[in-house]
Automatic annotation (TrEMBL):
GO terms for molecular function: deoxyribose-phosphate aldolase activity. Its EC number is 4.1.2.4. It comes from the Bacteria. It comes from Brooklawnia cerclae. This is Deoxyribose-phosphate aldolase. It catalyses: 2-deoxy-D-ribose 5-phosphate = D-glyceraldehyde 3-phosphate + acetaldehyde. Its main location: cytoplasm. Pathway: Carbohydrate degradation; 2-deoxy-D-ribose 1-phosphate degradation; D-glyceraldehyde 3-phosphate and acetaldehyde from 2-deoxy-alpha-D-ribose 1-phosphate: step 2/2. It is an enzyme of class 4 (lyase). Keywords: Cytoplasm, Lyase, Schiff base.
Length: 219
């Protein structure tokens, strides 16, 4: 698969989630996203509202980030505030402990509670690198039952690692086109981004958007 820079840009959530990020950093991120034509920028909730003119670029905001060990009510409140401050999309981290303990009804309820606060797109981060295949399947099924719009591999902050082709393939197979699949964590070049898309990713989360699109321009 070969994509032009403009085609590939529409897969990208141009991301800045460093704890030390400033409002000026977000303004630079937004300007770069507009220049590159990415689908969105993805930032931390404390950076809202974003004052920069995003044009057609969407605003995505993380929730329960990065550990997921917040209560459902806190995640719901964080999502509600993000939407009130302009978020088009919310990327929530699940409580992976619920999944690993087999508490799938509680996991589904947590996701549904956040989705109730998000009229736009909700992406569900499952930290696939630390899960078994069966757990990945269960997490995707819970997200679908809860009404989420995407499943997402990783925060990019967990020591277990980020996206893998295998995880993306399994997630895409599980949701069967009913949900989008976002690959995130460790995607820094064109070849890796294309490999994830070929595996079934419909969105890519990355901070190296300029380098990835430069690779597309060289094809």
């Amino acid at each position: 698969m070969d994509l032009t820079p403009a085609q590939l840009a529409k897969y990208l959530d141009h991301t800045l989630l460093r704890p030390d990020a400033t409002a000026d950093d977000v303004a630079s991120l937004a300007a770069e996203a507009v220049r590159l034509g990415t689908w969105s920028i993805c930032v931390s909730p404390s950076m809202l509202p974003v004052a920069a003119d995003l044009g057609e670029v969407k605003l995505a905001v993380v929730c329960g980030f990065p550990s997921g060990k917040h209560t459902p009510s806190v995640k719901a409140a964080e999502a509600r505030e993000a939407v009130a401050h302009g978020a088009d999309e919310v990327d929530m981290v699940i409580d992976v402990g619920l999944l690993r303990a087999g508490r799938l009804d509680d996991l589904t309820a947590e996701i549904a509670r956040v989705k109730a606060e998000v009229p736009g797109v909700l992406k569900v981060i499952i930290e696939s690198a630390k899960l078994s295949d069966d757990e990945i399947v269960s997490a995707c099924q819970a997200a679908e039952r809860a009404g989420a719009d995407f499943v997402k591999t990783s925060t990019g902050f967990d020591p277990a690692g980020g996206a893998s082709v295998h995880a993306v393939q399994l997630m895409a197979q599980t949701v069967g086109g009913q949900l989008g699949v976002k690959a995130s964590g460790g995607i820094r070049d064109y070849a890796t981004a294309i490999a994830m898309i070929e595996a079934g990713a419909t969105r890519i989360g990355c901070s190296a958007s300029a380098a990835i699109l430069a690779g597309a321009a060289e094809k």
